[in-house]
């Protein structure tokens, strides 16, 4: 991966997709080439495909949403009702009164914010040192950071659990946050960004006497916001959705995050009471889907930037 | 892998330049020790966290795998290889390894094939494709635990969505909760539904970055659509395909949330247990942390071996 070119972002407004270019060029070609053009049958098949895909994604989500507004008795009928009749907010009110749902939300917000902030700061500082500063052993340090990507979180939990329990940090915020704060992927992402900055500008700032930290804040960061936003977004999403570690660290609502709280809710009584559970999943999905709706382009950029072509 | 990048960058301004510039300004050479210690300061917190919470447990797993530790007691007695011997001899090992293989191969294979198919479809100039692109990607950002719980009800054999649809078309309804094969099918489908957006966006980005002229030239030469796909498109997508095969495999193998909320590894004890789930189950439910650490160690060694083979394969593909 010597000259790390980043795979193009999904940004069709600026760069017309290859299909468009191809078609345009082909149109300018001649009659013979246009016979290869997709006929109406193909176009129709394309639309049928799109509708199918949309249904596969949307129908389960619609089902969940509808169920969350049904009265208890209406959930357990056959054939199923595809519309809540009558619609009720009962499941949602039950969720907020009977279960410490607001505690789960608070914990999720605190833990996501703190972990993301730590990761973003540590990621930027590490990436900066590993890209634009010179010191002996830099490549070795870089490999140590990057190789951590190969170690699944799921197999480090045993020893980490013992360590955190020993410190008396179970059911505490720091017990959840600190072990998750090390950052490998973000360091990689930001380092790539920093290495792709125009060297002349950085050199000019250095010659003007900017020290390393001034260079970072005044020159490097202002040119790197889009990548930082992408990094921040995927970090926030993955911390919000983090499951195993908070699940192991939390016994109750004092630190349980939303996904963990949903699990408690599900197990509350042997038979799952689907109404409030569905309401809970809807509320857990909603904030991240809204975030996604507004910022999907930046989120996708963060993900695709990780896919480095060689 | 980074040496060439850093060298080419650090070489341009100073050392390699013409003598007029004579290396870095004196201020910096006198401050070299200072720059080193600043770099150390910037890196240290992250390095310490990664070493303490990622690398240390990895090694500690190996040590623990030779003990009978129970996660809560301060004492862990050495038991030699007995955890390993037990694992290789136990009946459930066979089932769990098979589940892991089935789940991983199905999720990796289907996510990549369908992800590429969707990318090809939504790369076409079709009205409304942006909406469908967003829809395909959206489940990827939702919590796996929330999706798992929701899909447990979607698959509910008595009142679920799937049951309702199957009955409407007049097909028998399998018991997704109780039949081992269908339970594994249920978690596999749920996982793919949630994660297909990832392979999709990566392939779509790669398609948008490909060279259209090659495809066009092949078309003018009279190559069929299938030939163009195999001979022109797939070779261009090869780096993306290898990248995905590694990242998707790593995340598939690690699945925990969906299995934990949907089946708890059951029915029948371990019908949907994978190696990662076994690590959790043995360590935290059965209180056999030594045994769990052994499974974790075995798993890591297998993952490492698979990744090394994949990287080798990728290097060979590059030369070919």
Give a verbal description of the structure.
- The complex is a heterodimer of chains A (310) and B (320).
- Chain A is mainly α and 310 residues long.
- Chain A has two domains: 18-93, no CATH class; 96-309, Orthogonal Bundle (MetI-like fold).
- Chain A contains 16 helices and two strands.
- A two-stranded antiparallel ribbon of chain A has the order 1-2.
- In chain A, helix 3 packs across helix 16, helix 11 packs across helix 12 and helix 13 (225-241) packs antiparallel against helix 16.
- The longest helix of chain A is centred in the last third of the chain and has 33 residues, at 274-306.
- The termini of chain A are close together.
- Residues 1-16 and 21-36 of chain A have low confidence and may be disordered.
- By secondary structure, chain B is mainly alpha-helical.
- Chain B folds into two domains: 27-64, no CATH class; 92-212 and 239-319, MetI-like fold.
- Chain B has 14 helices and no strands.
- Chain B has helices at residues 3-11, 26-30, 32-64, 82-89, 91-123, 129-141, 144-154, 161-168, 180-208, 212-220, 225-253, 257-262, 275-285, 289-319.
- In chain B, helix 5 crosses helix 11 and helix 10 (212-220) packs antiparallel against helix 11.
- The longest helix of chain B has 33 residues, at 32-64.
- The two termini of chain B are 20 Å apart.
- Classes of the chains: A mainly alpha (310), B mainly alpha (320).
- At the A-B interface, helix 1, helix 3, helix 6, helix 7 and helix 8 of A face helix 1, helix 3, helix 5, helix 6 and helix 7 of B.
Describe the structure using short key phrases:
heterodimer; A: 310 residues; mainly alpha; B: mainly alpha; MetI-like fold; 2 domains; 14 helices; 0% strand; disordered N terminus
Quick structural summary:
The complex is a heterodimer of chains A (310) and B (320). Chain A has 310 residues and is mainly α.
């Amino acid at each position: 991966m010597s000259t790390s070119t980043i795979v193009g972002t999904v940004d069709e407004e600026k760069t017309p997709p290859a299909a468009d270019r191809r078609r345009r060029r082909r149109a300018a070609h001649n009659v013979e080439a246009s016979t290869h053009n997709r006929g109406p049958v193909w176009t129709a098949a394309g639309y049928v495909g799109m509708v199918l895909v949309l249904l596969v994604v949307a129908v389960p989500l619609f089902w969940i949403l509808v169920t969350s507004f049904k009265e208890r008795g209406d959930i357990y009928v056959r054939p199923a009702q595809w519309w809540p009749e009558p619609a009720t907010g009962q499941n949602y009110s039950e969720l907020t009164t009977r279960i410490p749902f607001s505690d789960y939300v608070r914990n999720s917000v605190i833990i996501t914010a703190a972990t993301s902030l730590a990761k973003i700061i540590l990621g930027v500082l590490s990436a900066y040192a590993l890209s634009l500063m010179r010191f002996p052993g830099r490549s070795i340090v870089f490999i140590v950071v990057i190789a951590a990507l190969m170690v699944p979180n799921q197999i480090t939990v045993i020893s980490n659990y013992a360590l955190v329990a020993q410190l008396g940090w179970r059911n505490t915020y720091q017990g959840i946050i600190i072990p998750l704060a090390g950052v490998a992927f973000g360091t990689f992402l930001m380092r790539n960004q920093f290495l792709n900055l125009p060297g002349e500008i950085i050199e000019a700032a250095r010659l003007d006497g900017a020290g390393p930290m001034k260079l970072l804040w005044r020159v490097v960061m202002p040119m790197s916001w889009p990548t930082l936003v992408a990094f921040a977004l995927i970090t926030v999403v993955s911390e919000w959705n983090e499951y195993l570690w908070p699940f192991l660290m939390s016994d109750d609502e004092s630190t349980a995050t939303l996904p963990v709280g949903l699990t408690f809710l599900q197990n509350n009584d042997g038979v799952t009471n689907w109404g409030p559970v569905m309401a809970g999943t809807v509320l857990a999905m909603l904030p991240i889907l809204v975030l996604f709706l507004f910022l999907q382009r930046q989120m996708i950029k963060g993900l695709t930037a990780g896919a480095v072509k060689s | 892998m980074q040496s060439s990048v850093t060298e080419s960058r650090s070489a341009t301004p100073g050392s390699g330049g013409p003598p007029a510039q004579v290396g870095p300004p004196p201020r910096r050479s006198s401050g070299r020790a200072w720059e080193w210690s600043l770099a150390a300061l910037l890196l240290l917190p992250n390095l310490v966290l990664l070493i303490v919470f990622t690398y240390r447990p990895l090694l500690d797993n190996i040590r623990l795998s030779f003990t009978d530790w129970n996660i809560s007691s301060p004492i862990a007695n050495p038991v030699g290889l007995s955890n390993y011997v037990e694992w290789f001899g136990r009946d459930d090992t066979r089932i769990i390894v098979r589940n892991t293989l089935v789940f991983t191969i199905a999720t990796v294979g289907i996510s990549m094939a369908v992800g590429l198919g969707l990318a090809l479809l939504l790369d076409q100039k079709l009205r409304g494709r942006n909406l469908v692109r967003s829809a395909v990607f959206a489940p990827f950002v939702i919590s796996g635990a929330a999706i798992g719980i929701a899909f447990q009800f979607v698959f509910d054999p008595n009142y679920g969505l799937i049951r309702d649809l199957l009955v409407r078309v007049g097909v028998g309804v399998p018991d997704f909760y109780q039949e081992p094969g269908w339970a594994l099918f249920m978690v596999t489908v749920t996982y793919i539904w949630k994660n297909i957006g990832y392979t999709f966006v990566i392939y779509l980005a790669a398609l948008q970055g490909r060279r259209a002229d090659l495809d066009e030239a092949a078309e003018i030469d009279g190559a069929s659509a299938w030939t163009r796909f195999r001979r022109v498109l797939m070779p261009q997508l090869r780096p993306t395909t290898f990248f995905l095969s590694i990242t998707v495999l790593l995340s598939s193998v690690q699945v925990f949330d969906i299995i934990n909320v949907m089946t708890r590894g059951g029915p029948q004890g371990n019908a949907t247990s994978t190696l990662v789930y076994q690590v959790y189950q043995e360590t935290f439910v059965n209180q056999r942390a030594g045994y769990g650490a052994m499974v974790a160690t075995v798993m890591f060694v297998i993952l490492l071996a698979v990744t090394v083979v994949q990287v080798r394969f990728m290097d060979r593909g590059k030369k070919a």
